[in-house]
Amino acid sequence: TSSSTMSQTHNNNETVNVAHVNKRAKRENHDDDDHEKHLIVVKFHQFSEIKYKKDTDKYSPVFERGGARWKLQLRFSKQGAQSGEGSDSPLGYCLGVYLCLDEAPWLLGEEYSVNYAASIPKLDITKTSGESTFRLGKSNGCGWRRVTTMKRVLDRGLDDDILSIHIKFDQLEHICKRWTSSLSFNKERLKMLRTEAHTDITFVVGSSDQQQRIKANTRQLLLGAPAMKSIIDEATTVEEEDGDGKSISFPTIDPDHFRFVLRFIYAD
C-alpha cells in the first residue's frame, strides 16, 4: 500500500493537505495540531429583501478551498402554521444552511472528505458537521435543515442588512482513489465480466438451487492471478453454443464469494 501527500497553496496563502491514495490504501487523516483552521466569511447582502417561500433556496457566491469550488446554500422551510403558504412574512420560517460543491469538471473517481463548522457570530450560533464525503454527481450538500428561526435572524442577526456566516474547515481532504486512466481501464474489464464478453471458460459454482454458471476469460484471469493456471488446466473441454469451451466445477464454494474474487482479479 502506498500513498503520497502534497500541499496546494492558494492566493490567500492557505495550504491544504492533499492525499492521493491507491485502491488498496485506507484513507489517511492528514490533520495535525499545527494545521491552521481556515476561516471563510460568506456574506448575503440585502438579506431582509429575500422573498420567503416554502423550500426556496438561495446560494452564496462561489469560493475555493482545497482545489475545489464550494458554495453555501440557504434553505427556508416552514416550522408551523403562523404564516400562510407563499407568504413573504418570515414568521414561522426556519433557516437551513448547507455546504455544497459547485459544478466542476472533476476527474473520474475524485472525492473530498470534509468536516466543517458553520457559525453566525451575531447570534452566537455554531453548528459542527460530522465527516462527510462529497462525490461527483452524488453530493447534494451537507448541513442542517434548521439552524435558527428567520425571525431571530432578522431581529438580531444582521449587520447593515447583511447576514454573515463563518465557515471553518476542520478537515478538508482530497482523495484520488486511482488515476483516471487506470480507473477507466478497470471499469471496462469489470464490464467484460458482468456482460460475459469474450469468455472461454465456465465455472459451475455451488450446489443444488444455489448453483451458478459464471463465465470468464482465461487470459484476463491469468493476467490478474497467474496462480490460477493450475486450476484452469484442470478444466474439461465442453461443447458450447458458440463452440468448444472449458468448464470446471466448484460445488462447495459460495457463488457470490467466487464472483467477488473474480471481480478483484479482473480489476487488479
From TrEMBL:
PROSITE patterns annotated for this entry? BTB, MATH
Q: Which Pfam families does the entry link to?
A: BTB, MATH
Quote the biased-composition stretches of kind Polar residues, using this chain's numbering. 1-16
Q: Which residues form the MATH domain?
A: 37-169
Entry-linked InterPro entries = BTB/POZ_dom, MATH/TRAF_dom, SKP1/BTB/POZ_sf, TRAF-like
Q: Where is this region: Disordered?
A: 1-33
Ranges for domain BTB? 199-268
Highest taxon in the source lineage: Eukaryota
- Which protein is depicted? MATH domain-containing protein
